[in-house]
Design brief:
By secondary structure, this protein is α/β, with parallel strands linked by helices. It contains 11 helices and 8 strands. It has a single domain, classed as TIM Barrel (Alpha-Beta Barrel). An 8-stranded parallel barrel has the order 1-2-3-4-5-6-7-8, surrounded by 8 helices. The structure holds SN-glycerol-3-phosphate.
Length: about 220
C-alpha cells in the first residue's frame, strides 16, 4: 500500500520524505489556499521536491470543459510526475477521457458513491479519490464506500487505483489496508499517529530505565 501526503506544505512534505514513508502528494485548492502562495508555482515546487518517481496531484479550478482542458494541460506540463486532479461530473469525466488519450494521468476527486467510482474508472481515471472522512461527517459510513469500490473494481478489468482520501485517523488507514485499497492520502498529523502506541513509549522507557540502573554504558 502506498502513502501519499495530503498537503501543500513543503515543510510537511520534507518531514514525510525524511521518514521515508511518502510515495506521493495530493493537493487541492483549499490546501494550496492555506499556504498563501501562487497556485501553479506551488504544484511545480512540490513536484520537484518529491522527485520524478512520486506522483503529485494538482487540481483544475475551471468547471467548463474548454478551460478545464487548458488548465489540465498546463498542470501536466509543469513536471512529468504531475497527475491532474479533476472533479467528478460529466464535464470532469469527459476531460479525463480526453486527457487519457493524450497520455495524461488523472485523479478523479470528490467521489462519494460507488457509481461515481464506476464512472471514473470507465472514463479512464488513473486514481479515484473517495472522501471517507466527509462521508463519516454526514453520519454515513466512509469505509463502506471503500469496500464497495474494491468489490466493483475487482469484478472488472479496470486499471483505476483506489486512493482513499479525507483520511482523519489511523483507523481509516488500517481498514483501507485490510480492504486492499491501493493508496491512502494522509495528513502529516495522521501519518505521525500511525507510528504511535502508548505501550511502545512505555516499553522503551522501561528498557532504557532498566539499563540505566546498571550504571554501565553501551560499550561495557
Ligand atoms: O485532498 C482531498 C481530501 O483528502 C480532503 O480531506 O479532510 O478536507 O475532507 P478533508
Amino acid at each position: 500500500m502506498r502513502f501519499f501526503l495530503d498537503t501543500a506544505d513543503t515543510e510537511e512534505i520534507a518531514q514525510g520524505l525524511d521518514w521515508g514513508m511518502v510515495d506521493g502528494v495530493t493537493t487541492n485548492p483549499s490546501l494550496i489556499a492555506k499556504q498563501g502562495l501562487p497556485y501553479l508555482g506551488t504544484v511545480k515546487k512540490i513536484a520537484e521536491l518529491v522527485g520524478e518517481d512520486r506522483p503529485v496531484s494538482g487540481e483544475v479550478l475551471a468547471t467548463d470543459y474548454t478551460t478545464m482542458m487548458e488548465e489540465a494541460r498546463r498542470l501536466a506540463g509543469l513536471a512529468p510526475n504531475v497527475v491532474v486532479k479533476v472533479p467528478l461530473g460529466p464535464v470532469g469525466l469527459k476531460a479525463v477521457r480526453t486527457l487519457r488519450q493524450e497520455g495524461t494521468l488523472c485523479n478523479v476527486t470528490l467521489c462519494f458513491s460507488p457509481t461515481q467510482a464506476l464512472l471514473a474508472a470507465k472514463a479512464g481515471a488513473a486514481y479515484i479519490s473517495p472522501f471517507v472522512g466527509r462521508v463519516d461527517d454526514i453520519s454515513s459510513d466512509g469505509m463502506l464506500l471503500i469496500e464497495q469500490i474494491v468489490e466493483i473494481y475487482g469484478n472488472y478489468d479496470f486499471e483505476t487505483e483506489i486512493l482513499v482520501a479525507s483520511v482523519r485517523h489511523p483507523g481509516h488507514v488500517a481498514e483501507s489496508a485490510m480492504m486492499g485499497a491501493d493508496v491512502a492520502t494522509i495528513p502529516l498529523k495522521t501519518l505521525r499517529q500511525l507510528y504511535k502506541h502508548p505501550l511502545t513509549d512505555l516499553g522503551l522507557e522501561r528498557f532504557l530505565a532498566d539499563w540505566a540502573k546498571t550504571g554501565k554504558s553501551f560499550d561495557d
